[in-house]
UniProtKB/TrEMBL annotation:
It holds the Pfam family GDI. The lineage of its organism: Eukaryota, Viridiplantae, Streptophyta, Embryophyta, Tracheophyta. Belongs to the Rab GDI family. InterPro entries: FAD/NAD-bd_sf, GDP_dissociation_inhibitor, RabGDI. This is Guanosine nucleotide diphosphate dissociation inhibitor. Coiled coil: none annotated. Gene3D superfamilies: FAD/NAD(P)-binding domain, Guanine Nucleotide Dissociation Inhibitor, domain 1, Guanine Nucleotide Dissociation Inhibitor, domain 2.
Amino acid sequence: MIFPLLVFDMKVYNTSLVSCTVLHMDRNDYYGGESTSLNLIQLWKRFRGSDKPPAHLGSSREYNVDMIPKYIMANGALVRVLIHTNVTKYLSFKAVDGSFVYNRGKVHKVPATDMEALKSPLMGIFEKRRARKFFIYVQDYKESDPKTHEGMDLTRVTTRQLIAKYGLDDNTMDFIGHALALHRDDRYLDEPALDTVKRMKLYAESLARFAGGSPYIYPLYGLGELPQAFARLSAVYGGTYMLNKPECKVEFDEEGKVCGVTSEGETAKSKKVVCDPSYLPDKVRKVGKVARAIAIMSHPIPNTNDSHSVQVILPQKQLGRKSDMYLFCCSYSHNVAPKGKFIAFVSTEAETNHPETELKPGIDLLGPVDEIFFETYDRYEPANDPSLDNCFISTSYDPTTHFESTVVDVLNLYTLITGKVLDLNVDLNAASAAEEE
């Protein structure tokens, strides 16, 4: 059999190439690869080496613990991908209750509009007025309408210069840049302001899609539902899925181009391979390390309005760090734990070899925990030239608790593989499958 496109476990599964035959191989016996969701017994085996979790935590099968916890921006690119591929018919989503930011030692709701800016305790009275004017400018800004630009070319004006025009202080820009625009560091300040304005508008548009308190949505039963849904849809178009395939050795011809993949003595011939970095370690380079804590709790995160699902971003400056820290919490309301149980994650780009110490600022916000697990993993990015070897490698998952950076990577892969830019101009308002229950 000839497989022009051989796909291993990947962040998003391409089902648009219906003219190609797709074989998806996975060395694991479960869907999702790195981003799977585990039940309690699987979680215990992975971190404690035992298959007997304590009885007081409840039934194992009621847990769906994400290994790469991320929320989905309600008006973002991933929702458009889900609608474009029609995979939404296999999924159910629910809005996330809250979006918060850590500032000056406290957790605050992220203000996303001019009216919320006036009410936010993050700023003093005069700063609130300046912030309100800035939010109005962002809300009214239209790239195609120069009348909304107020004489500024945001492709040339830096974010720092835009901030100076409105007189916002560093504290205000800290939460705007990291919790609203979702920048991961402060390099954006000296880059064109258009990107930051677009990011802020996406946040506000996503927030407006639901009556809840955040711009995020999350699938019922956890993120492990995403790869399973794509596998179902792939099968409709003739794709084949093989779990529990050991080794998966990529084979190359005399010109250095991929020619197939071998597992258990059998080789599937292929002209292209798409995979995560673990399948081709000689063609990637290390770019960082993620530190993460996973906690099982019997209460919501304090100071988040008793939210059953919530994201808290801890900007780097607030912690004296080089990178942000992220806090993600979900619960039985999304069917990922038994009633009364909450699952929280704290993650960041590791700057030391001591995750327990490094993650302490985020862990301290959780309150009492029933159980806690720590892990670190290396992050990689491709170092090969796909035009030479036909190997298309995804970038490792970063510590962010939203999918924005991951989707960019996947869409770039799509363009590299097909030579086309995926058209995601869809009517989100018609996507009832992504609406809150």
